[in-house]
Write a structure and sequence with these properties.
Layout (H helix, E strand, L loop, with lengths): L4 E6 L2 E4 L21 E3 L7 H4 L3 H4 L11 H13 L9 E3 L26 H10 L3 E7 L15 H11 L3 E5 L10 H16 L2
Parallel strand pairs: 1-6, 3-4, 4-5, 5-6
Antiparallel strand pairs: 1-2
């Protein structure tokens, strides 16, 4: 069974939700007992030249946004090891939005952008794991991600299995394009619980 840690973003409120469910829920799997620490290309990114420089540059808040690829992700992971950040507990390398194609594959699965990730996501995950780090990815509890790529609402089981097949350890799960399934705690909870249960079944 794959094990996941999930960051859930609910509208403007950001909260860490172990396996996307509230405490006391029967699908809590015991992960995220301490805050997951690491690097996410959306909010803590740098230029390719800065990757080659110092640790202070590595942690500088200059976001890549959608301008991310396997080379940059893996170079950053190597620097996290070289600078000793992994040994201080910074273990997650998280690939945020814009990693996928604009359309799902013929079988309905999410498909990585082959220009940005020519060897596929499993290869990226394997290389990150070989460095003693953990690999995180991004989706949304909506029809589209915030950057308008395909997301996981209505595809939770298939997408959870795809992430498991790729070796993903962590899911950052956003709240964009939720088709109006918000406004009450219960509506939001149910969307996140669906993905939580799908992940726990992999």
């Amino acid at each position: 069974m794959a094990q996941y840690t999930v960051f859930a973003f609910l509208t403007s409120l950001t909260l860490l939700v172990p396996s996307v469910v509230a405490l006391g829920s029967t699908s809590y799997n015991g992960l995220a007992k301490t805050p997951p620490m690491g690097w996410d290309n959306w909010n803590g990114s740098i230029t390719s030249q800065q990757i080659r420089d110092t640790v202070s540059d590595l942690m500088r808040n200059k976001a890549y946004g959608c301008d991310i690829d396997a080379e940059t992700l893996l170079e950053t992971a190597e620097k996290m090891v070289d600078f000793g950040l992994r040994d201080l507990g910074y273990k997650y390398v998280i690939l945020d939005d814009c990693w996928q194609n604009m359309e799902r594959g013929p079988n309905g699965s999410l498909v990585a952008n082959s220009t940005k990730f020519p060897d596929g996501m499993k290869a990226v995950a394997d290389k990150i794991h070989d460095m003693g780090l953990l690999f995180g990815m991004y989706s949304s509890a909506g029809m589209y991600t915030c950057a308008q790529f395909p997301a996981s609402l209505g595809h939770e089981t298939r997408d959870a299995q795809t992430f498991a097949d790729w070796g993903v350890d962590y899911l950052k799960y956003d709240n964009c394009y939720n088709q109006g399934q918000e406004g009450t705690s219960k509506l939001s909870f149910d969307r996140y619980k669906t993905m939580s249960q799908a992940l726990n079944k992999t």
